Backbone:
């Protein structure tokens, strides 16, 4: 059986660090104490004028290609998960393709907001399993700060910018859950929940970019329930239980969501990778950013069972199980 193995990782954060106190100083009616207590966020990175999503994506991609020891010319496919493309069209993925110097294969974007990296992982894995691509570059890249209404304190303190990248490649496996690589991905969505989290603009409606709008309390409630269900579905399909999983790499929206999910499923909090304190919510970039951190610092090791999960606007949610 063909398995999509992760052969390289990279990430990139803009150098501009914005603390909670910085946001309060800019005139937003908030405090470091409120933000830390309700979300666990201490600081986030924000792009400077002229820095775009593709810029972050290319930096993360270069590091992932170097880590994989391959050249961009060996890629068959680039998938960029983003909800903040440089332009309405073309896809940011084709801009990245050109800047990386890849002149073959295909490149396209996936839009599933904060679940984008999990959706992209599923797309990449299925292209590889179907034999349509051997080597795929998957990137989650966002400039969420561009979508924020800085007069809305209920949303503007939560998000940050960044990018994470992963190179996946086809390798032979036995078809058991001992195989290295992606064991499964589980995707879900429910479009009826649009009004709880959306952007109030777009080319075919307002002809503007719009701003992010969220009913935070309601999103929170759905997040814990949906994430728990996705984790259990992924473990069950692989013939495993939640207790068999070595590391959980969740979408980083709120430390209280990470804690609530761990409590509900009886997961040891030490197994949950958390970067929300220093990244904030970077939407589709948050899972690969957290994953890269945990691999770099030596927590995630070859052979470990790693569960990636996310939930976001749409609603969309999902999980992916990877044997490292
Ligand atoms: O990535 C996609 C998924 N997104 C999420 O998962 C986000 C999910 N939601 C959350 O993380 C939380 O609901 C929030 C962090 C957004 C809000 O936390 P909360 O504990 O649900 O607070 P709340 O919305 O109930 O607000 C409590 C109070 C309100 O004041 P009153 O009505 O009690 O007087 C808010 O106006 O906190 C006030 N508040 C703030 N105060 C200071 C809201 N935002 C702020 C702020 N600073 N930034």
Residues:
């Amino acid at each position: 059986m063909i398995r999509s193995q992760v052969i390289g990782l990279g990430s990139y954060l803009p150098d501009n660090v914005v603390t909670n106190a910085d946001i309060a100083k800019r005139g937003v009616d908030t405090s470091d104490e409120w933000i830390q207590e309700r979300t666990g966020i201490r600081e986030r990175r924000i792009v400077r004028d002229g820095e775009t999503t593709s810029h972050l994506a290319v930096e993360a991609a270069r590091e992932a290609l170097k880590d994989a020891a391959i050249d961009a010319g060996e890629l068959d496919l680039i998938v960029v998960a983003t909800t903040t493309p440089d332009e309405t069209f073309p896809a940011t993925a084709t801009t990245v393709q050109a800047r990386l110097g890849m002149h073959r294969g295909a490149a396209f974007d996936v839009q599933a907001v904060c679940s984008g990296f999990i959706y992209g992982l599923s797309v990449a894995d299925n292209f590889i399993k179907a034999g349509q691509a051997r080597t795929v570059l998957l990137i989650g890249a966002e400039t969420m700060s561009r979508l924020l209404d800085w007069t809305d304190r209920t949303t503007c303190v939560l998000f940050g910018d960044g990018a994470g990248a992963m190179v996946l490649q086809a390798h032979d496996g036995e078809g058991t859950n001992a195989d290295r690589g992606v064991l499964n991905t589980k995707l879900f969505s429910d479009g009826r929940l649009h009004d709880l989290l959306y952007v109030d603009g777009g080319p075919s409606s307002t002809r503007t970019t719009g701003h992010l709008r969220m009913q935070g309390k309601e999103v929170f409630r759905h997040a814990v329930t949906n994430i728990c269900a996705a984790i259990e579905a992924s473990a069950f399909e692989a013939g495993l239980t939640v207790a068999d999983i070595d590391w959980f790499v969740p979408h980083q929206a709120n430390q209280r969501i990470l804690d609530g999910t761990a409590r509900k499923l009886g997961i040891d909090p030490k197994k949950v990778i958390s970067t929300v304190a220093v990244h904030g919510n970077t939407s589709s970039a948050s899972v690969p950013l957290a994953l890269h951190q945990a691999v770099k610092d030596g927590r995630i090791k070859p052979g470990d069972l790693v569960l990636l999960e996310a939930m976001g606007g749409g609603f969309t949610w999902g999980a992916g199980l990877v044997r490292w």
